[in-house]
Design goal:
Layout lengths: L2 H14 L1 H36 L7 E6 L7 H5 L10 H8 L4 E16 L11 E8 L9 E6 L9 E4 L1 H6 L14 E11 L4 E18 L6 E4 H12 L17 E6 L5 H11 L1 E4 L2 H43 L1 H9 L4 H44 L11 H18 L1 H8 L3 H6 L2
Parallel strand pairs: 3-8, 5-7
Antiparallel strand pairs: 1-9, 1-10, 2-3, 2-6, 2-9, 4-7, 5-8, 6-7
Helix pairs in contact: 1-10, 2-8, 2-10, 2-11, 8-10, 8-11, 8-12, 10-11, 10-12
């Protein structure tokens, strides 16, 4: 008997007992739906929790700052201007050449004066001091920054900024509605201090900017996020002396910090040791991430086990349905053997029938599981957004969907093995003679 004949015979039997087949199919589909939904939700939870810890940036990121100089090395460092301890471009290049380092992003901060634009119904301070955090925004995915509303400033822009939820709290606005400040104006002033004989005064280099987004960020302490060109310009002005015009060349000026991305979570410790050996302090949430991962893996194992148990129960239903089919089709089996069908041919027909029910149930269940998980994601997103937190992103995990289909098919085939063996071993004379 060819595979085509066996498949046609199995499909015919499925269609002939349509009511029983539909009920069996629904049991497998519901079990596969539960398993797929639980696995997708647990994996998404793991990804999003870790993303929250990293504030949206790469999990393998390391923050680098200038370490306090070793007193025994002060004379040597002072004798070598441009030492890597300055944490400037030379240090960034040296760190970028280390093994297992995939990227290095410099960060510059500047203390500035901010004057919020006019807003109806707001209780605003006339001005306040805060720190502007400037970074290279050409590839924001390399930075620990998450967009809560709007977008990040365009790379190189001097007229666009993003603010953190602390800005809304300062203006006594609801932090759960960050979109309300997107599009507002914000005056930024880089101060330059002058010392008189009688009092200390300052003047500022003012720049009118627009708030284009609200973000959560861990790149450096500060409530305003802008481009590195903007903060370098402010730094240049503030560093100029009384008689200068602010045209200092700060292309080799020290950075406030660096965001270094290692080639994987397992490489963070090694990269941190290498950077520390060069002479800089580092910080990374590797221990916290590792602990959270362990707990999340336990949750994933438990949820997967629950779904697997449901799938096994459904497959027992397949076994029961096929055993009933063997009892009902004893005469048919005998006729097949009488006209030349071998034991393995009969075995093959029943296995195909079981696999067909498992595959169809797996496809329907996996798609239903993804749809159910998506609905759960929408509900969770609504709650998180209402709380002023980052939303979750639940995309289709093709690996999980494929695993649901293959797992259902395999378990159904195993469940159909016992009835198939019983049918294959049925003597032809005994089967034909039964009324």
């Amino acid at each position: 008997m060819s595979f085509r004949d066996a498949f046609a015979l199995a499909l015919k039997e499925v269609m002939r007992r349509l009511g029983r087949s539909v009920l069996t199919l629904m049991a497998v589909a519901l079990a596969a739906c539960l398993l797929t939904a639980l696995v997708l939700i647990s994996r998404t939870a793991e990804t999003e929790v870790l993303r929250q810890l990293a504030k949206g940036g790469p999990l393998a990121s390391i923050k680098v700052a200038a370490a306090a100089p070793d007193p025994s090395q002060l004379a040597n460092d002072n004798a070598r201007p441009g030492s890597p301890r300055d944490l400037g471009p030379q240090a960034a290049r040296a760190i970028g050449q280390l093994p297992d380092v995939t990227s290095v992003v410099p960060v510059i901060t500047s203390r500035m004066i901010f004057v919020p634009g006019p807003g109806a119904g707001r209780s605003e301070p006339p001005y306040f001091y805060d720190t502007a955090v400037g970074a290279d925004l050409r590839d924001p995915s390399l930075l620990p920054i998450s967009v809560l509303a709007g977008r990040l400033p365009a790379p190189g822009s001097l007229t666009e900024v993003a603010v953190t939820p602390g800005y809304l709290e300062r203006l006594r606005l609801d932090p759960t509605q960050p979109e309300k400040v997107v599009g507002d104006g914000l005056e930024m002033g880089a101060p330059r201090v002058f010392d008189d004989l009688e009092e200390q005064t300052f003047r500022a280099l003012w720049q009118r900017t627009e708030i284009v987004g609200v973000v959560a960020q861990e790149a450096a302490p500060g409530g305003i996020v802008t481009t590195i060109e903007h903060t370098r310009r402010a730094q240049r002005w503030s560093a100029a002396s009384d008689g200068d015009t602010g045209d200092l060349d700060l292309s080799d000026s020290p950075y406030t910090g660096l965001v270094v991305v290692a080639d994987g979570l397992d490489r963070i410790g090694k990269v941190r040791r290498q950077i520390t050996d060069i002479g800089y302090s580092t910080s990374a949430p590797e221990n916290l991430i590792a602990s959270v991962q362990r707990y999340l893996n336990v949750v994933e194992i438990v949820l997967t086990a629950i779904g697997s148990i449901a799938l096994v129960i459904a497959c027992l239903g397949i076994t029961n349905a096929l055993l009933a089919a063997v009892r009902e089709r004893r005469r048919e089996i005998g006729v097949l053997k009488a006209i030349g069908a071998r034991d393995r041919d009969v075995l093959f027909v029943f296995l195909i029938e079981a696999s067909l029910l498992g595959a169809l149930g797996g496809v329907l269940g996996s798609l239903g599981g993804w749809a159910s998980a998506s609905v759960v994601g929408i509900v969770v997103n609504s709650y998180l957004t209402a709380q002023g937190l980052l939303g979750v992103h639940l995309g289709p995990s093709w690996g999980v969907l494929l695993l649901g289909v293959l797992g259902s098919t395999l378990l159904a085939s195993v469940a159909g093995a016992v009835p198939a063996l019983k049918a294959a071993r049925l003597p032809a004379r005994e089967a034909v003679n039964e009324s």
